[in-house]
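Title: Prediction job returns without error message
Component: structure pipeline
Severity: low
Priority: P3
Assignee: unassigned

Description:
Job completed but the reporter wants confirmation the result is attached to the right record. Sequence as submitted:
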Amino acid sequence: MVSSPEYRTGGLVSLVEAVGGKVHSVDYCFGEFDVEFILEAPDDIAMASLSMAVGASGAVTNLRTTASIPTADAVAAAQKAKEITYRAPGQ
């Protein structure tokens, strides 16, 4: 990247769009990760296929994905969690 600076996100945008997704942002980072992509995929299968395709290329050595959900969905999940009980094995 330093010896030949260039905007390298075009291929990613095309890949995401090929599965019906949308790239919201691409940012370089300081710290644990070098690059952060915020994107939207139509479903988990589309997201998994993107992750698998990029990983299989060998171009990325440490790929992580994190799903996010709207706050309203998190509140609904918390409400539902109040209605169920989990017992850890051995308890």
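Comment from assignee: result matches the submitted record. The helical segments are 10-18, 44-57, 71-82.
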